[in-house]
Amino acid sequence: MADTGKLKRENTALLRQAMQHGSAGKNDLARLTHLSFPTVSRIVDEMVERGEAQEIGTAASTGGRCAMQYRLNPQYRLFLCLRLEQDTLHWFVCDLDGTSLEQEQQTCSGDVREFLDTLLMRVRARYPRLAAVMLGFAGTMHNGIVTESFGYPELRGVSLSAYLHDKTGLPCMAARDMQVVAAGYAAQYTPAPKAAVCIYIGKLGAGAGIVLNGKVWGGAAGFAGELHYLPIEHNLEYAQNHFAGADISDYFTKVICGCAALINPDRVVLYADSRLTDKASRIRESCAQALPEQAMPTIELSQSFEQDYTRGLFTLAKKMEETT
Q1: What is the pLDDT of residues 62-113, one digit of tens each?
Q2: What are the residues whose beta carbons fall under 8 Å from the beta carbon of 94, sequence distance 6 or more?
Q3: Taking 60 as the threshold, does the pLDDT of residue 153 lie above it?
Q4: In the CATH hierarchy, which fold is given to the domain comprising 78-180+307-322?
Q5: How far is CA 90 from CA 23, 46, 57, 82, 94, in A?
Q6: Per-residue pLDDT, 242
Q7: Nearest Cα to 168, choosing from 125, 122, 120?
Q8: Is 50 helix (H, G, I), strand (E, B) or coil?
Q9: In the chain, % of residues over pLDDT 70
Q10: Is the C-alpha dihedral spanning 157, 158, 161, 166 positive or negative?
Q11: Which of 7, 99, 204, 232 would suit a FRET pair with 92, their CA atoms being 20 to 30 Å apart?
Q12: What sign has the CA pseudo-torsion 273, 267, 213, 323?
């Protein structure tokens, strides 16, 4: 015997997916989802009643009765997205379309958990339709536990996802910053890249996020992308001294060739940094000399680090809400 509750959830998910492409009438939705008109009519009416969908008026007449059009209400579910880097906490609340409703940044001079506690309480009270919390941070995790958090030693040994969930009661997720950025980079493409490596030089050294078959890949222990552990001379020192004395072109040629040998990405994204100015061409040439033609990735120099980070936070928050 069919599980009617499960079937209804699946049918509702189909209708949500169909309505993400814009407004539609019930007949249109029945055609798009291959569901019966009575099923579509009943579920859409329920979605309107609880505020998940909206009536937006009738379509232009084509000779028959004008059909009511429906669309998803973008503010039915909201997300809190946080970015923690050095002594600064950036955050924004956005709707299902990714539109920011409020955003702010603040300096955390003490225990960052006190700032998070205050912020979570305030945002939770202000936005009762908050559905998920997503945090990106500069650090490393293993099995969800923070093993290193640059600038926040109080977070070491903490399960950030569990911590955020305990404070909000909502689905919560924490991820390494470059994994979030890679998710944001991939989200702008349909289909998503088969294999891409996104590399950024920040104040705390260089790191990478990896996308394989359209999904962010962190490896067995979430360690994938920790570039300063590659066997390159002085590599760990470069993380501390901001690449003082380094031949940046040679360094990134070695990194990209290592990625090509192990992952074989079709593209590598280098986020623009003053240390990379006028070096992209040389890096491409050196990689082309070192790699066989079929293994040579497209190397992009991108100015969109902030945009990809923001898009990644939203993308991961929305996926989390959709699967709970």
Answers
A1: 556 678 999 999 999 999 999 998 788 999 999 999 999 999 999 988 899 9
A2: 78, 79, 81, 100, 101, 314
A3: yes
A4: Nucleotidyltransferase; domain 5 (3.30.420)
A5: 33, 37, 39, 6, 13
A6: 87
A7: 120
A8: coil
A9: 97
A10: positive
A11: 204
A12: positive
Q: Indicate the average pLDDT of the chain.
A: 92
Rounded distance, CA 324 to CA 321, Å? 5
CA–CA separation, 145 and 156 (whole Å): 8
Flag whether pLDDT at 36 surpasses 70: yes
The matching CATH number, chosen from 3.40.50.2000, 3.30.70.100, 1.10.10.10, 3.40.50.2300, for 4-72 is 1.10.10.10
pTM above 0.85, yes or no: yes
Secondary structure letter of residue 66 according to DSSP:
P
User: By the 8 A CB rule, do 278 and 266 touch?
Assistant: no
Q: Which residues pair with 145 in a beta bridge?
A: 142, 159
d(CA 44, CA 88): 43
* Same-fold call for 78-180+307-322 versus 190-306: yes
Instruction: Look at the block and give the residue holding tokens 């909502």.
Output: 170
Give, as one character, the DSSP assignment of residue 275. G
Give the class (CATH, top level) of 190-306. alpha beta
Report the share of the chain in percent with pLDDT over 90.
77
The span from the CA of 221 to the CA of 204, in Å, is: 21
Alpha helical stretches, state H, the chain: 4-19, 26-33, 37-49, 112-126, 160-168, 177-187, 235-241, 248-262, 280-290, 305-322
Q: Which residues contact 134 (CB under 8 A, 6 or more apart)?
A: 79, 80, 81, 82, 172, 173, 174, 175, 180, 313, 314, 316, 317, 320
- Residue 1's pLDDT is 44
Domain boundaries defined on the chain? 4-72, 78-180+307-322, 190-306
